[in-house]
Amino acid sequence: MLAGMACIASTPARAQPIDPPRIAYAGGAGQLLLAGQPFLMLGGELGNSSAGTAAQADTVLPRLAAEHLNTVLMPVAWNEIEPEEGHFDFAVVDRWIAVARRERLHLVLLWFGSWKNAFSSYAPAWVLADTKRFPRATAVDGTAMPMLSVFGRQTRRSDGLAFAALMRHVRRIDSGAQTVVMAQVENEVGYLGLGGRDRSAEANRLFAGPVPPPLLRALEAPDARLPGRLAASFAPAGRDWAQTFGRAADEVFMAWYYARYIDSVAAAGKRQYALPLYMNAQLPAPHERAGDYPSGAPYPFAQPIYRAAAPAIDFYAPDIYWPDFERWVTRYRRAGNPVFVPESRLSLAPYDALYVLGQARGIGFSAFGIDDPAGAASQSPRLADVYSILTELGERFVQAQERGDTRALVLHLTSPRPDQTVALGGYLFSATLARSWPANTPLAADGAMLVMQSAPGEFYVLGSGLAVTFLRDPDVDDAIAGIAGIDELTWTSGGWTVAQRLNGDQSNQGRELLMDPHTIRLYRVRLYSYPRR
Prior knowledge:
Layout: E1 22-26, E2 29-34, E3 37-39, E4 41-45, H1 54-66, E5 71-77, H2 78-81, H3 91-102, E6 106-116, H4 125-128, E7 136-138, E8 144-148, H5 153-174, E9 180-187, H6 201-207, H7 213-220, H8 228-233, H9 241-245, H10 249-272, E10 277-282, H11 303-309, E11 315-319, H12 325-334, E12 340-341, H13 349-359, E13 364-368, H14 373-377, H15 383-393, H16 395-403, E14 406-412, E15 419-424, E16 427-433, E17 446-455, E18 458-464, E19 466-472, E20 480-492, E21 495-501, E22 513-514, E23 521-530
Parallel strand pairs: 4-5, 4-13, 5-6, 6-9, 9-10, 10-11, 12-13
Antiparallel strand pairs: 1-2, 2-3, 7-8, 14-17, 15-16, 16-19, 17-18, 18-23, 19-22, 20-21, 20-23
Helix pairs in contact: 1-3, 5-10, 7-11, 10-11, 13-15
């Protein structure tokens, strides 16, 4: 039997303060370390209105723990913790932390401060009503927008004070237990509106002036790696933003000032409690322009700008709702970020989770609206089954991920090609969507698998909806691969046991792994090879 290990499961409370969680890198991939040990976030993000009361913690968190999550992403709204200026109320936060700790769950706090999805509906009323102290962004026609201006100095200061108060409070009640493992600073920031940038008097004054020297130095540094879109527009001899960045000037301008604002807020929080801090991004839809999507957000092309302007932010993460899921993961990973997806479609979450954790070697995965009982009930396969199996694989999976001994792929009926292949341990794993015989019709519209090498020639394959054939990797030799055995495993009495051995029709006469089309299952596959001649 393979005993489950604890490194994916939740960490128990500790009596004494220890080093805060931190992001580290090993074997070319990021890791979230708790008490020095890698921790894999098997997460879900709550709906925006699901964490506003203490009572909600008592109903939501036990159910999510039963669904095998170990991490919950929960909003913390500025208007709820500071309803009056300078007077803070953390009663709701305290209850959520206490219940999460009882349920052996961790939390990622989502700071809904000045902006949430570009707008400012979570700022306190005393901020929103005072447009002199806390100015609004201005549209092209001069209209005040329903979003705070990134150029409001007092807004930035007040937001930073509130976030610092939250981090100070979390450190005081939780630094020993580390129930809270990270925080997101603001939510899907950016300017929404025609033209792609704020037209307030202060914004116009700055836009007409020179580009700040720190940004120029960062973009001109010998080791600067500018994405194509930024490199194509960059003319460092320009006298102002428009001359320096051409058609990209409005968006680059907003990116710099959002980054500077948020760095100030993040740094204020980190001085109180140095948790890992990240920013998320609402990704552009096809054919959208800046201003249709939030202009100035930390998109891949803007990563050099954000890294120059916001050293207090540890990494950037995409909220992915578009079909090209793997492309967005790859773009953020190539920009130097540990892979973490804080928001994704619940309907495809089981497949996307396998890709993030297996192929991209992510530090965690989260689906949005995880607390919606109707959404979870309608899932087939279930994200809960992915999380359950990874929890029981435990330390073996985290160690394999660290070594680079995991792979994954995802297929949909809408995929550009009907098959995909990954290589691991001297073998190729070639997959297509499972089909009926003899009608040859698809048994599932979606399928995915995560492959983990456990020993030479032995692999654990987690997934559903695929038919998988095995070939010898031609980069290794020209031998022929064969299947020595396929076992479907189940977790019983604290260990993995063989539920059934797949032979004959269940393995296409020893030629394929035929996965269940609708249920996530774990298979152990033993392979061998023999000379071609």
